[in-house]
Amino acid sequence: MSWDFFLGLFPQLVDSFWITLSLWLLSSLIGLLVATGIAVMSVSKQLPIRWIALGFITTIRGTPLLVQIYILYYGVGNLIAQVPGIRSSFMWPILRDGYWYALLALIISCAAYSGEILRGAIMNVPKGEIEAAKSLGLSKTHMWRLIILPRAYRIGLPSLGGESIILLKATVLASTITVMDLLGMANYIRMQTFKIYEPLLAVAIVYVLLTFILTRGVALLERRYQY
Amino acid sequence: MTEVFRGAIVAVPKGVGEAAKALALPPNFRFRLITFPLMLRVALPGMGNLWQSALKDSSLVSVVGFTELLAVGKIAASQTKFYLGFFCTTALIFLALAIISNWAFSLVSRHLNRGFA
């Protein structure tokens, strides 16, 4: 294994590193927002709203992420490509690119898993605090925004951190739909130079570093927001 | 799986293990009749999670070329250009397998929890 070649790999991985990082961070943050909505819907008192939320969570958690990515990219992408006149419109460079389909699939998946975690956290908020909020006369919006949701985020913080690490490893699947993320670039280098271990080892090191940074960040947040 | 089993063995009450030792049962009898059934009750949710995640990760094998369910679906879809239909059918098959496994695990869990509150 030649060290010059190995160290010369890292500058080539910079562009794909930004793609992986943006896929991971965007899907984490937007997925967390959607997950909050799903979790609030799943503890609602009206049965149809609860069924929609629980059905969404069960379906997305019961099917593999790769199948969801294929449904969006090949299935929906094919339908979009058949719309007459779409190829000459200004949206075509966006609709043709696999990055947005992978981002949408990761957002949906993160929303389902984080929604399940937040649902458990909302149900574990101490009832005494909710009763105190009601006795103070807080409206439902204020009660949710000031009491229940902050408490639920603190309770669910370790599990949400673990879910983010799983999401980082799931962004690898975007390389199967022609997104040039870290693994896509590693495969490209492998096919150009016929060296198998060096590109994959370099990419593995980058993923370990990212996971380490995230774990430290979550530990820092846990220490600050202990309940 | 090792972590799940380790946590479950630690969760068995110490008094039960000491009572089994007081009865002078040999070690393999102690494990087979006393520790193992109690440990299985605690370990079952973790095992259920790992089972479901292994079921979904089996679809990743299609990326390295082995023809399993998702790979066959992809071949069928690319032959007939009926992408959405075949991939949705594959998703429904995975979902049916997941729902049936969940139901089976809940049956076993109810059987194992039959002396406890």
From TrEMBL, chain A:
Keywords from the named record: Amino-acid transport, Cell membrane, Membrane, Transmembrane, Transmembrane helix, Transport
Annotated TM spans: 16-39, 51-73, 98-118, 166-189, 201-221
Chief site of localization: membrane
Subcellular location: Cell inner membrane; Cell membrane
InterPro entries in UniProt: AA_ABC_transptr_permease_3TM, ArtM/GltK/GlnP/TcyL/YhdX-like, MetI-like, MetI-like_sf
GO cellular component, one term: ATP-binding cassette (ABC) transporter complex
Its membrane topology: Multi-pass membrane protein
Gene Ontology MF terms in the entry: transmembrane transporter activity
UniProt cross-references to Pfam families, sorted A to Z: BPD_transp_1
Residue stretches making up the ABC transmembrane type-1 domain: 17-218
Biological process (GO), any one: amino acid transport
Domain of life: Bacteria
PROSITE patterns for the chain: ABC_TM1
Function description: Part of the binding-protein-dependent transport system for glutamine; probably responsible for the translocation of the substrate across the membrane.
Record family assignment: Belongs to the binding-protein-dependent transport system permease family. HisMQ subfamily.
Protein name stated in the entry: ABC transporter permease subunit
Lineage: Bacteria, Pseudomonadati, Pseudomonadota, Alphaproteobacteria, Hyphomicrobiales
